[in-house]
Amino acid sequence: MFLRGNLIGLIVDAVDDRSARGIAAAISRMITAGTLPAGTRLPTVRDVARQLGVSPTTVSEAWRSLTRAGVLQTRGRSGTFVATVSSRQRLRYSQMGAVGAVAQDLSTGVPDHDLLPDLTDALKRIGDGRLTSSYLDAPVLPGLEEVLRARWPFAPSSLTVVDGALDALDRVIGVSVRFGDHVVVENPAFPPLLDLLQTVGATVIGVPVDKSGMSPEGLAAALASHPVVAVFLQPRAHNPTGVSMTAARASALAKIIESYPDVLVVEDDHAGDIASAPPVSLATPQTVHVASFSKSHGPDLRLAAVGGPAPVISAVADRRLLGPGWSSRLLQAVLLDLLTDPAAAAQVSDAREMYATRRAALLAALHARGVTATADDGINLWMAVDDQQMAMVALAAHGIAVAPGAPFCVTPLPSDHVRVTAGLVPTEVDDLADALAAAALLDSRGSGPRTRPHPRGWR
C-alpha cells in the first residue's frame, strides 16, 4: 500500500495535462499499467488539487468521469478507490441473452435464417480464388465500391468496408472519441454501442426518441449544454423501438447540427435492405454512415460499409492496417454478386415483406389485448411492461425468452420494457400474444394481470 505522500507524487508526475480530462486520462493510464492496483485508496480531491495547482472542481470532475466509466468507486466518507473487476459494471450486451435453454428465444435480435438469400450460386460464381492474389490490392473491390456509392444516401468523400456494423462503430469511436468526451445517443439505445462508449470512458447523453426519430428539442438542449464531439443514431428500424426516422425529422436534426460544424454524426443503418422505410440521412459534412448487410444478406458475411468525411474514414482504414488489414475480398465478391443478382434481390424483398407481416400481426394482437408496444420497422418489437423482471420470469415459465429493456436505457424511461424479436415470430400469434400480454400486465406486487390496462408510452 502507498504512503499518501508517495501516491500524490506519482499522480503529479503522471499528469502532463492539468485539465479535468488530462487528469482523468493520467489516472486511467496508471490503473491500466498497474501503478494504481485495484483497491487503492486515492488521495482527497483537495490534496491532489493543491499539489497540481488546480481547483478542487477540476479534480472532482476528473474523479466523476472515472467513476462514470467504472474505473473508480466512491465509498462515501471512506473515500474514493480504484474499482475492482468484480465491482465494475457488467457489459450491457451480456445482460440481454436468454439464460439456459428455452423453447422460443425471442431475445436475440437476429434475422430469420430461412429468410436470408441463398448463397450457393454466388459462391459458385466467385469460387475461382483469383481475388486472393495480393496483400497490396485495394481494401474494397472496385465493383463493390461502385455499387455501394450508387446506394449511399449522400455522396461520401471516402468509403471502406469493415467486418460488420459493430466493427464499424468500434473503429469510428476509436478514432474520434476520447476519454471524457461528451457524446449524444438515442434513449433508448443499442446496448453494444453504450458498452463501446463506456469502454473508452465517454460521457453519454441520452436524447428521447419519438415516432419520427431523435427529438430535435432534446438534441438542441444537449448540444447547447455540453461540448459534444459526436452524435450516434440509428436512422432506420431503430433498435429497440423499430422507429424509422422521417425525412422531415432528419432535415430538422441536420439544421440544428449545422451550428456545430465540428460535431461528428454517426448513423448506424443496421437493418439495411430489410427496413421498410427508405434510406435516410442527416447528410451533414461531418456525417459517417454505416450500411450493414448482416440482417439482410447474412450475418456470416461479416460486412458493413462505412462512408463519410475522408479524415475519419482514412483514419479507420489506416488503423486496420495494423490488424486485419482488410475485409475478405471473397466475401466482398459474394456481397457484390448478391446486390446485383435479381434473384437475390427478390429474396431480400420477400424477406422485407415477411418481416413487416410478422411485426404487424404480433403488434395488432398485443394492442387488442391492451398492451402498449411499437414495431414500426425492422425485426424488433418494444413492449411496455408493468415490471421487467416479473415479466421475464413469467415468460420464462412458458419457455419464452425476451430481452430486458434496462440495458437499452441511458436514463430510465417512464415505464419498464422488454424487447421481442418479432421477426422470428410466425404469423399465427395468438398463444404468444396471450403469454406476452399476461406478462406485460402483471403488477409490481405479483397479484396477477390488471383487469383494466392503462396505456403507457415508451418515450
TrEMBL record:
Keyword Transferase: yes
Top-level taxon: Bacteria
Annotated GO MF terms: DNA binding; DNA-binding transcription factor activity; pyridoxal phosphate binding; transaminase activity
Domain HTH gntR-type residue range list: 17-85
Gene3D superfamilies: Type I PLP-dependent aspartate aminotransferase-like (Major domain) (3.40.640.10), Winged helix-like DNA-binding domain superfamily/Winged helix DNA-binding domain (1.10.10.10)
Keyword line: Aminotransferase, DNA-binding, Pyridoxal phosphate, Transcription, Transcription regulation, Transferase
Transcription in keyword set: yes
PROSITE patterns on file: HTH_GNTR
Family listed: In the C-terminal section; belongs to the class-I pyridoxal-phosphate-dependent aminotransferase family.
Full protein name: DNA-binding transcriptional regulator, MocR family, contains an aminotransferase domain
Naturally occurring in which organism (per UniProt): Paractinoplanes atraurantiacus
Lineage of origin: Bacteria, Bacillati, Actinomycetota, Actinomycetes, Micromonosporales
